Amino acid sequence: MWIETKTEMKETSRSRASFSRRVLDGVMLCRGDMEHLDKYIQDMSFVLQLAVWGLRGVARVILANNPLSGALILAALYWDSPWQGLLGTLGVLASTLTAVIIGQDSADVAGGLHGFNGMLVSLLMGVFSSAGDWYWWLLLPVILGSATCVFLSSGLTTFLNHWDLPAAVFPFNIIIVLYLLCTGTNNPYFPHNPAIPPGVLKPNDTELMAVEVIRGIPLGVGQIYATGALGPSLLILGAIVLYSPLLCVHAVLGSAVGTLAGLSMAVRHDSLYSGLSGFNGALGCMTVGGLFFTFSWRTNLFAIASAFLSAYSDIALSNMLGTVGLPACSWAATLTATLMLLLSGSLAAYRIPIGQAKAPECNLRSRSQWKAGNTEERESTDV
C-alpha cells in the first residue's frame, strides 16, 4: 500500500512537471518575433494573413514584431477610446492593403513594416481633431493619409538603404504635419486643435506632485500611441514584455529619462503628469538599447544618452513648431535615432544591420554566434 501511494505521488509530480513544461513552452512560443506563425498561416485565407500582418504593424509602433503584442495594444486603444481604436484599426488596414495592391515586398508587408506609419497617422488625426469623437468625415483623410504613408516609406527606404537606415516614422511625421498645415484650425470639414508651445504659457505656479510625476513614467510609453490613461498604458507595457522584457526595461528607462529632462527644463506640469515629456525618450532609448545595437554596458549608456538627446530635442522642437500651431510629434526621437545609427567608432561594432534586427534577446544570441564565427574564421586563417 505504501509503495503504491509513493508511486502515485511520483506520477502526480511528473504530470505536474510535464504540465508546467507545456505551459512554459507555450509562453515561449508567444514571445519574440513568432516567425513560426508566418509559416503556419502561409496557406490560409488572405483575411487571416491580413489580420496577422496588421497586428504586427500595430506592434511595430513600439519597435516590436509580435502579433499577440499587437492584439494587446489594440485592446488597450479600444479600452481607452473606442473611436481611437477604430481609427487605428482603419489606418493600419488601409496602409497594409495599399502596400499589397501596389506590390511592395511581401516580407516587409508580412512583417508589418507598411502598417505602423498608417496607424500613427490615423491616431494623431483623431487626437488633434476638434470635431470630437465619431466624426465620420474624418475617415476620409485617415484612409488617404495612411495609404500615402506607403508611397513615402517606399521612396525613403530606397534612399536610406544606401546607409543601412530605416525609414522609421519619417512618413508619419511628414504626413501629419502636411495634414495639419492643409486643414488649419478653422477648416469647415476637418478642424483641429493647435499645438501650444511650452514656453508661451505662464510659469508653473503650483507645487509639483511627485506621485503624479512617477505616474507619468508609464504614461510616457502609452503616449507613443497617443493614450494618456494609466490602465491602457500598463497593458501596452505588458505587450512589450511579451515581445521582449529587455525592450520593456528600456521603454520605462527612456520615459523616466525624458521625464527627468522635462523636470530639468521646468516644462509645464501637465506635460510631466500626462507622459508627454517621456515618450520621445522612451522611443530613443528603445531604438538603441537592444534593437539596432546588441545589449552591453556600453550600448546601455548609449541608450540613456539617446533618451536624453531625444527628450531635450523634443522640448526644443515643441517650442519652435508650437509657434505655428504644429506638434513636434516624434521628430525628436526619429532624428536622434537616425544620427545614432550613423555613429562610427567602437560602438559601431555593436550595430545590427537593419534587415537582421530582431528582439533584443535574439540579437544577443546572434551576436554571440557572429563573434564565435569570426573567431573560428581568424583561427582557421592563422599560419
UniProtKB/TrEMBL annotation:
Membrane spanning residue stretches = 58-79, 85-102, 109-128, 134-156, 163-181, 234-260, 272-295, 301-321, 328-350
Query: What reaction gets catalysed by this protein?
Result: urea(in) = urea(out)
GO CC field? plasma membrane
Indicate where this protein resides in the cell.
Cell membrane
Which UniProt keywords are listed? Cell membrane, Membrane, Transmembrane, Transmembrane helix, Transport
**Domain of life, per lineage:** Eukaryota
Q: Name one GO molecular function term.
A: urea transmembrane transporter activity
- Return the InterPro entries for the record: Ammonium/urea_transptr, Urea_transporter
Kindly name one Pfam family recorded for this protein: UT
Q: Where is it predominantly found?
A: membrane
Give the bilayer topology: Multi-pass membrane protein
Which family is it part of?
Belongs to the urea transporter family.
**Under what name is this protein listed?**
Urea transporter
Q: Top-down, what is the taxonomic lineage of the species of origin? A: Eukaryota, Metazoa, Chordata, Craniata, Vertebrata
